[in-house]
Structures are given as C-alpha cells and as structure tokens.
C-alpha cells in the first residue's frame, strides 16, 4: 500500500529560532533520538565512550579529538548518529516478505531507514519483486559470477567515507586484483576540490592544522562550513578561542546559528545560566560562489595596507621573508591582483568594499590565522580555484607552517581522508601501484579509473554495468536523480553493503544484493578475538576505534569479512593475499598497509597500541617543506572572478539554489523533519527565499511552487511542491534541502579540475502553482 504524502508531519511550523547552538535544545535533541530509536537505557552511557581513546571514533564527522577529551566529547549530531546505529529497531526478512520493492518506491528516505538495522543478506527476486534471504555464500558466489561475465572496466567499486582503513585497503586491493581503478568515493562529491587544489599550492592533499593550533591562533576564518551542525565538537575550541578574545570571521550566504552563538551543553553553569558565547565577531553574507572575489578583495586590501606600512616605516603586513624563501609565483600573482577592479569584486562577492576591507584588516593584524572551509567552497564550478585563492591569502602573511595558523579543510565522513591515504582512488598515480605489484605478485591496472561523475556517465551510457557500494546511498547523493535512477535500473548488478535500508536498495539493477554489515560501534568478533579498526581524522591523526555494543544481528558480517568473501569468490587464489588470515586478525591488514605505505604507517600496530591518543601522519607543509614541482609553495593566480559558465546566457528569472543540510540529517540519512536551528519544523519540502525576491515573484510565505532547473542545456529538471519560506538569504539566491533538490543538479555542472558536483550553485526558475494547495497550513 503506497503511503500518502510521506514527507510532512501533521503539524508544520516555521518560526525564527532564537536560541543558540548547543544548550538545552541540543540535549533535548539527543534524548529525543535515543527514545525514537528505542535505544535501551543501559546503552545510554555508551555516549561517554564516543571519541575516547578506549572508545569508538564517532561515526558522524571527521573532526579530530583533543588530547584531553572532555567528559562529553560528543555533540547533538554525533549522539544522533550513535543512536541511529545502535537502535533497537530491526528490518529483517519478515519486513521484506510483506513489501514488494515497487511498493517501497513511494517511501521517503526517512521511512526506509526508520525500519531499523538490516539483519540478513538479501537477494532481489524478480518474480515476486521482493528481497528474499540468501546465505552469505550464495551472495558471494552470485556476485562473483555476474562480475566474471563482465569486462573489469564495466564495474565500479564505490566507497563512502566511513569505512575503516582496514576495510578500505582490502577493498581497493579487490578492485585492482579484479582489474580496474574504478574506485570513486564520497570525497568525489565533497573535498575532492581540496585534494586537487592543495597539492598544487602547498604540496599536500590534506590540511595543515592540528587541534592544538586553536590554542595559539590569533584569528579564525570560516568559509562555507557550518560548524554548529556538521562538526559541532569544534565549537569547544571556538569557545576557548573566543574566551581569549580572538576574532572569528565568517563568510556565508546564510546566518548559521552555530557560527553565531553557542552554549556548551557540557558546562553545567552555562546550561543553568543560559550563558552564550558569541562565535563570529564579523559575519559576511556573501553571494553563493562569492568567495573567490572576496578573497581577491582581501588580498588587494592587504597589498594596500602593506604599501602604507612600508611607506611609514612600520612593520610590514606581508611576510616578505616567508614569501621570498618559501614561495613561487608572487610577482605574477601581484600583477594578476592588480587587474581586478573593486567594482567587479563587489558585484561578484555581493559584499561592499568596506566589508571586505574590514575583514582584511583583522586578518592582516593577526600573527597566526586559521582558515577553515567546507562545502561552501568545494561544491562550486570554481571550487578548486577558490581554495587556491584561500591558500594564496594565507601564504601572503606566512600563515602556513607556524603554530596557530594553517589551512583547515573540515572533511566530512569520519574516515574519508584515510580511505584516500590507503589506496581508494581512481587516480593511479596516487596509489603505490609498483609496491602493490611487488607485495601481492600481480600487475595492477594502470589506466585511470572513474570518479563519481564519470561513473554516473558510464551508468548512463551503458558502459558501467555493475556497481558495488561499500556504504553510502549513492543514488540519492548524486546529481540528476531522475535521469540517473532510470539508467540505474538497466545495470546488470548492484550490490549494497549497508546497515539500513535506503533508496539504493529500492532502485537496483537486474540482479541485486543487500549485504548488511556491522557498524563501527558494534563488537567485531573474529578468530583471533575482538577486533578494533583504525581511521584518520581531518587533522591527519590515526586513531583506533573499539566497538562495544552487541551486533544488531548474529548474521551480520564485518566490512573486511564481506570484502574478503567477495574477493575469495571472484579472484583466483593468490598465495600472497591471505584474505582469511586478514579477516581473522586485522593486525595483519595493518601490517600489509605498513608495507605499502612505510613513510606513513611504519610500525603501524606498535604505534597504534603505544599511542592511545593516536599518531600523526607526516604533514610536510606544516614543517614548511613543499612537495610541489617547484619545491616551493605556489601562488596560483585566478584569471577571472568566476562567472559560472554553466549559467544560461539569459538570466531572466534565474535564481541560484544552494542545497543545504539540516540539523536533523546525516547526508541522505534523514533523522527527522525538523531543522531547529533554522526554525523549520515538520517538513523539508521548503524553498528559503529572500523577502525582496518573494515580492518580485509575488509569492507569500507558505505558497507552493515547483522549482525547475534553468541550466543552459534546457533538459527538463523539476522538484514539485516546495513551500516558500522567508529567510535571510542574499537576493538572487535561494536554499533547499539535499537530497530532495538533487533532481535539479545537472551531472555536468561540477567543479573544474575536481569534478565535485556544484551543489551550492544550481541555476533554477520558480513556477508558481495555481489553485488549491494540498499542503497543510503553515503555523508561524
Ligand atoms: N550532522 C551532520 N554532520 C555532518 C554531515 C551531515 O550531513 N550532518 N555530513 C558530513 C559530510 S559528508 C560533510 S562533507 C560535512 C559537510 O559540512 P559543511 O562543509 O558544513 O557542508 P554544508 O552543510 O553542505 O554547507 C556548508 C555551508 O556552506 C554555506 N554556503 C553555501 N554556499 C556558499 C558559498 O558560496 N560560499 C560560502 N562561503 N558559503 C556557502 C552554507 O550556507 C552552509 O552553511 O559534514 C559532515 N558532518
Ligand atoms: N545536492 C547535494 N548533494 C550532495 C551534497 C550536498 O551538499 N548537496 N553533499 C555530498 C557529500 S559531501 C557527500 S559525502 C555525499 C554523501 O552521501 P551518502 O551516500 O548519503 O553518505 P552516507 O552518509 O555515507 O550514506 C548513508 C548510508 O550509509 C549506510 N551506512 C551507515 N553506516 C554504515 C556502515 O558503518 N557501513 C556501511 N557499509 N554502510 C553504512 C546506511 O545504510 C546509510 O543509508 O552526498 C553528496 N551529495
Ligand atoms: Mo561529504
């Protein structure tokens, strides 16, 4: 029985939220989800184990752990992610016996995942259109026989950024032994712009900041990263930074509550007195994609300030010694900056010259500056360039490679950075293929594999015929939902290694398997005993993660065991790859990782045991060693302020859509329909609009509209039935939730150089709905 209008609560409320991030609202959020997921009371104290050296690495974000973690080294959203995984709800064969897949088509993401943890491997049965239980061996054999019938390049092995170093390493080896480098991961939709931009500028693909740097910094900047929702543990460091009266500058088209105010829920006094910390000392509401122009404007201001200081015989603003000794391309960069006019900077950034100068002054006067950034920079057509421009700004004042300073890409998933480190990459030059060849006695494929966008293109043109997902909900996360869903069903094989039912199970290939796995919080018992796994956080530190809760079902296998099961069924025996031995004892996988990557992982097992707080990867740029072709840190000069070339020639009636995460979701996992911090309760089908634009379009709050894609290719793309909400967002921009708005994002609209879908700048047009609305009234 198809459900009616599954996406709204019976009561929908839109009203501005006055509270801070954290505080009682946050504690209430935690308790609500613990009840909703029916987490037994005995498991509640487990929250205290989160992000402790003897506990588990939070399955939510990738932010690092301080050396002395607080009693509650958790946050509202980390607690939600934990509750989501250790839930008492189960989705077993009885559920699947009751529902055909066609029937589940109309279920929302929330309703699918609300069924709870999957308990047994399942195979899709074409005759009944139902998932039916199968044994693990049947699943592995079935998958292997499909894959054997294909050419290796016709299969894609996708990973979502949560899988451990051990599982990821085994998985990339499986793909390469099978014969391809088709190893895209969620990073391709996320911080790939970072991984492309930073090696060219500072010679490493990851950031340079450690948590201790927050103790020494004199200024923190945020470009397009929503700390209060997506990496809330960082608020503890920001609170301490503000206590020292250090300025924080935020650049964001939306006023995000977490960048404005915070009440520490771990501080009893603050909770009782309601004391809030003001986070940002300056908040610049730029246009979507306006960062590049803003950074150019700040740079011009610094040049002017420096000239003035020089003329007056004061200490220079630019770090001329650093520029001279450590950088390349400064003269060309200076000339490029001279080309840009303030008039154009103001119009491309949406900020006034005075605003930009005010930000530059604070930056220029601080001796050590940290620049944090997230999807607001990476998910644009010019994302790579914007990151390079941020790096330029830091280099000007020597803000890389000294205490309290650095560039800080705040990555998403808890091990997304680590997966790339251990070989999950479609770019052969980033994997030690010669080493693999020697270690495992085979000739690894040398051709470039497919990234996320290229994998999607392959599914569309039929050249990709099988898709194996280690985690994630790929079909919901990618652009162009409708077109991609149609193409997806033509594939020969889809395999989902997941923990909960999601859309990727419903939209499937001709043969389809669901392989349910253990989560990281669960006890992983293997032949040699209980195993732990390891992850790399966004500061480049490796931690062990120990599960503690009983598995959701006795039939679950760990991710390493599933990868090994597929590999053994598919690949010829290889005496140098001991899949069984690896599964029996993950320490042996870590030994293999150490052999492949000795500089980073030498003595891996010893070091992880001896350092309960983790150990660090080498970060050459932190030591001012530049592993670039010039041997220096490079200034990279932008040639334009990025007019997005994908926008249609005639912009009449076109708005730029930013796709957003709510406070009640982890990526495509929707915990609930509320977004407390933005004052939206009970629905996600909204379009946030500027008041002046609403007048222009003659719209009132609560009106229902259809949103159409307005990209230059004129392909019809539409999301129907969004309700207009008046919001403080720049004129010309509008906001909607991800993944609901993904049908509007063209596959080809992605960052140049990194192929990250430009999800923060989608051209759209509004079409008003005539007649009666079938929605519930808004209660303001
Ligand atoms: N609770 C929770 N935590 C998460 C996740 C989650 O979904 N929920 N997801 C995880 C993952 S995989 C990731 S990648 C990270 C994502 O975390 P973030 O990097 O914070 O990503 P978003 O929330 O998509 O958007 C970030 C901010 O960019 C702003 N923005 C949009 N366009 C622009 C622009 O042009 N310029 C600027 N300066 N700002 C802009 C938006 O208003 C928003 O505040 O979080 C991780 N952590
Ligand atoms: N429009 C728009 N699109 C976007 C974005 C955006 O900002 N806007 N953001 C992009 C970004 S940054 C990202 S990272 C992607 C991510 O998007 P997703 O693919 O949604 O990422 P996940 O959170 O990894 O996927 C959730 C699924 O992982 C499975 N899962 C959970 N825990 C585990 C586990 O321990 N093991 C395994 N094997 N499976 C598990 C569950 O079944 C769950 O359904 O979306 C991208 N898409
Ligand atoms: Mo991400």
Can you describe this structure?
The protein has about 775 residues and is of the alpha/beta class. The chain has 3 domains: about 90-190 and about 415-610, Rossmann fold, CATH 3.40.50; about 200-410, Dimethylsulfoxide Reductase, domain 2; about 655-770, Barwin-like endoglucanases, CATH 2.40.40. It has a 6-stranded mixed β-sheet. The protein has a 6-stranded mixed barrel with strand order 24-31-28-30-29-32. A 5-stranded parallel β-sheet has the order 12-9-8-14-15. The radius of gyration is 25 Å and the shape is globular. The structure holds ligand MGD (2 copies) and molybdenum atom.
Features of the shown structure:
780 residues, alpha/beta, Rossmann fold, Dimethylsulfoxide Reductase, domain 2, Barwin-like endoglucanases, 3 domains, six-stranded mixed beta sheet, six-stranded mixed β-barrel, globular, binds ligand MGD, 4Fe-4S
